Amino acid sequence: ETGVTQSPTHLIKTRGQQVTLRCSSQSGHNTVSWYQQALGQGPQFIFQYYREEENGRGNFPPRFSGLQFPNYSSELNVNALELDDSALYLCASSLRSSTDTQYFGPGTRLTVL
Amino acid sequence: AQSVTQLDSQVPVFEEAPVELRCNYSSSVSVYLFWYVQYPNQGLQLLLKYLSGSTLVKGINGFEAEFNKSQTSFHLRKPSVHISDTAEYFCAVLGGGRRALTFGSGTRLQVQP
Questions:
Q1: Using the beta-carbon criterion (under 8 Å), do B106 and A41 form an inter-chain contact?
Q2: A23, A98, B36, B44 — which has fewest CB within 10 A?
């Protein structure tokens, strides 16, 4: 069974640029959630995708957007990067269920200079 | 709205001593509760979860947690810690119609020889 993978591992961008982060779900999972974890804090929910449709969104501006593909992999796009966007971005996959456990990938560390 | 409070930001403990990491949640509806562990520069790994049934839940690496509905708590315990347990521990809640996890701010467990 393949776990959740994310790429790249690390990324450095400058303010105003755009970035795309990628996530491959665990085998058999059709739901992907994205979280932002700032240094020293718990993860904060960005949004969730189920069967290629957005299925819930946290308190993040529209410049945070996403996609889910037919194979259930996913992308997180952030436009007009700000310094405060520097964080660990975590992807989690699960089955479509209100009780299903979310399994996390190793994360992408984004640094905005 | 749901919230999770982890009462201790840091818990220092000596090797082979017992430890308890505290977690309280607030929710007006039934929830599901999780503990995740995060080792340095890594993603989140599921330790254990409470969905229903027995209020004492056993997880990996010798950890267990007890769900207490009247006190809205889900404290994590281990009878004897090892140096390798040094990590950040996050309590999270899922439910109330939301499929996104709400995390606490984390507790850093520091095991000393």
A1: yes
A2: A98
